[in-house]
Structure formats: C-alpha cells, structure tokens
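Cross-posted from the bioinformatics board.
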Amino acid sequence: MKIQRHGTTRRYSDSVSHAGSVYLVEVPQSTEADIRTQTREVLDSLERLLAQAGSDKSRLLLATIYLRNMEDYDAMNELWDTWIPEGCAPARACIQAKLAHPGYRIEVVLIAASIPDSPAG
Amino acid sequence: MKIQRHGTTRRYSDSVSHAGSVYLVEVPQSTEADIRTQTREVLDSLERLLAQAGSDKSRLLLATIYLRNMEDYDAMNELWDTWIPEGCAPARACIQAKLAHPGYRIEVVLIAASIPDSPAG
Amino acid sequence: MKIQRHGTTRRYSDSVSHAGSVYLVEVPQSTEADIRTQTREVLDSLERLLAQAGSDKSRLLLATIYLRNMEDYDAMNELWDTWIPEGCAPARACIQAKLAHPGYRIEVVLIAASIPDSPAG
C-alpha cells in the first residue's frame, strides 16, 4: 500500500495517509492570538488537510489535544463541540503540555479514516 | 470500511473502530481516589470497552499513559504489569502531564487490534 | 491479521506490528548524556527496530517526540532533520513532558507502515 504525503518539509508532513488511515498534526498560525482564535485556525486547517487526504471531520478515529494551559479547556471545547458532527466524535485525549513555540496555546493530532464508509466494510 | 463507535457524546467517543484497529481513551471515575484505585478503574473500563469493540487486552498495539505525577509510576506499573497477559505487552509511552480534571491522576490511550488473529493474516 | 511483537517484556514491547502498521516507542540508554547523544541513541535504535519489523525510516506515518526540556528542541531537530530521508517526513508532534526516568531527555513514539509500497496499493 502506498504512502501519500501532503505539505512535506525536511521535518514533518502536514498529513500522511496509508492503508485507509490518515495522520495529521496542526498548530496555530497566529502565535499572539487567544485560544479561541488559535483553536479556530487549527480546526479550519485540519478540515482542509482532511479534505486533501480524502477524509473529513465525520471520520475521525483518535484526537490528541495538547493545551499549553488547561485553563483554556472550556474555550477550546466550545469550538470543538460544535465543530464535530453530531454522532461522529473520535476517541479523545486532552493534556496540558508546553509546546514547541511559546506562542502556541494548542496543538492537535488526528488519526482519521481515509477510505469512504461502505456497507461491505 | 465502516467506522464503529461506542459511548459517543458531543465531545468524544469511548471507542472508535476502523479497518481492524480500535482507538480508546479512558480516565478515572473516582476523582478523589489514589493512583491504585484510579488505575484499577481505568484498566477495568478499558477491558470492557475492548470487549465491546471485539478486542481484548492481549491484542494491544500501542499504549500512551499520562500520569499527573510521575511519583505514581511504580504503583501504576504494579497493576499494569499484572493486567497485561504475558507475552502480549504493547509498545508503551508514559509521560507526566496535567490532565483535564484536577482529580485525574491517570489517563490511558490505547490502540488495539479488533480483528481476531488468523494464520491467513 | 496476526500481531507481531519484538522485545516484549512484562510491561512493554519494543515494537508491535499489525495490519500493515508498526508501533514503536524508544527512550535513551545513556541517562547521563546530553540531548545530542540521547537523540542519536534513540534514532539509531528506532532504525534497528523498524528494520526488524519490516519497515524503515522512509515509511514513517506519525511521530510524537517528548522532550524533558523544550530548550533541547533545536539540538534534537538538527539530528532529526538529517535522519529523515528527504520527502519522507511523517506527521509530527513535539511537546515538553517529564518522562519516566529523570535522566531521559527524549522519548519518541512512531507509527510506521510495515508493508512495502506497491502501485496496486
């Protein structure tokens, strides 16, 4: 099975697909922004990356959400809870951690299904 | 291939299965309890969730264990080491991190195989 | 599909393969060493484990890098960026976290593809 990558640099790819699963990691672009702006940026970007990889936010399997400060938990969840299509929430872990850039308040890792549902599955 | 979810809320699912793998995340129920009680609760719950998804603790692929305090490492491992069937331990990472609820001393993420072993692989 | 494990103890396996994916976690051996030595040890060991599992560093899907101290980020990346074959970088998250042994400055979790590429994939 072929590996497909998007947004590949020397260090990382934006997404990597293989064997019906796609792996994505996203951080905010606006490192001075508040948690709402950063969460919105990350979710919007993940939505584009999912589409690029032949998946979408109704097909998430596992999400890992890293927050620089757990006090941002409720504000992040306000956006998350409306972003996730009803009945489609992935398994999800959320932990506090210092991230690579001091301006990042959130980093999200997703594993999603990249092959469309089929009754034969 | 079809995605199957259990325990789905607006925010997360207890488990999500796809393409022969199942993804699970669990936290303790007793937020005032010590690490032994919380670890026992989490492992017991994961065992039920694995069964519900057509898997079991002999088929774990990757475990990520988040501990609020690394001083709980030895006590957690006492339970972990006896919970894992001999010869079946998954790849495993264990890190310290502040978790979503101040009473959580442990959070466990599992990826497991959901299709039974067969020589025809 | 069969699960294949290498380096299995009561607590963890060095690698576990299933359904075309392999899961690996590695920590340094030299707990007194600096970040360059530890990163080199971890990447060398992961390379051996990948080979043992029928994969290699050109087939990484997702990497999670835990650093004890984010000040080690640039030194770790110097080695990472040359270790990754050009055009083959995985999705990657990097966070700061206290690890199981106080001497560990780095811990790396990989998910890789274990089935060779084929146009039929």
